[in-house]
Amino acid sequence: xxxxxxxxxxxxxxxxxxxxxxxxxxxxxxxxxxxxxxxxxxxxxxxxxxxxxxxxxxxxxxxxxxxxxxxxxxxxxxxxxxxxxxxxxxxxxxxxxxxxxxxxxxxxxxxxxxxxxxxxxxxxxxxxxxxxxxxxxxxxxxxxxxxxxxxxxxxxxxxxxxxxxxxxxxxxxxxxxxxxxxxxxxxxxxxxxxxxxxxxxxxxxxxxxxxxxxxxxxxxxxx
Length: 223
Prior knowledge:
By secondary structure, the chain is α/β, with parallel strands linked by helices. The protein has 2 domains: 4-20 and 99-221, 3-Layer(aba) Sandwich (Rossmann fold), CATH 3.40.50.1000; 23-95. Helices cover 47% and strands 14% of the residues. The protein has helices at 22-33, 38-50, 56-70, 80-95, 102-107, 123-132, 150-157, 175-184, 200-206, 215-221, and strands at residues 9-12, 114-122, 142-146, 168-172, 187-191, 210-212. The chain has a 6-stranded parallel sheet with strand order 3-2-1-4-5-6, with helices on both faces. α2 (38-50) crosses α3 (56-70). It is globular.
C-alpha cells in the first residue's frame, strides 16, 4: 500500500468510517418497519447489513417490492415515502450525538490532499450533519451521497480528472465500497472497527485488499 501522503485524493465513506453510525442506521431500519411484523423487519435488517453502502432508497424499495411479497403484506398499506421520512427523522436526531473518528480528523492537518466523502447516505442529510459537527470544511473536494449511487458519484468526480484515478484512494467498510472503487480503478482499503460486514477480514484477504482495524493502524503501518 502506498503512503497516504502520496495520494492526491483521499476519499472516505461515512458510516463506519468517519462516523460510528452503522448501528444507528440498522436500528432505524428495524424501527420504522417493525409494525409490519418482526420477521419482515428482520429481513430488511439483514438486507441492509448484506448491502452496506447502497442507499436507503434502494433498501426501502426492496422492502416494498420483495419483502412485502415474501410476507404477504398489503402493498397498499406501505408508503415508501413515509418510511423514508420516518427513517430520516430517527437518523438525523441520533447522528447529532454520534461518535466521530478522531484519528481521521486529526490526520487532516498532516494531509495536503483533496478530501471527499462518498457515501450511500442521503447527501443533504450528510452535508447538514457535517456542518453541525463542524467537519465539512475538511472535505474540500465535496460531500456526496444518495440518491446518486457511489458508482455515479465516482464517475462525476473523475469525469474531467481521469489522470487522477491512479492517485486516489477510497477508505470504506463494505463490499460495495470495495467494488465501487475497483470499478472506477482507484485504490481501496478496508477499516473494520465499526463495520457490520461480518466477513470483512476474510473477504479482504481473498481479494488481496488491505484491511486495518482503524485509521490509526494505517498511519502506524507507514511509519
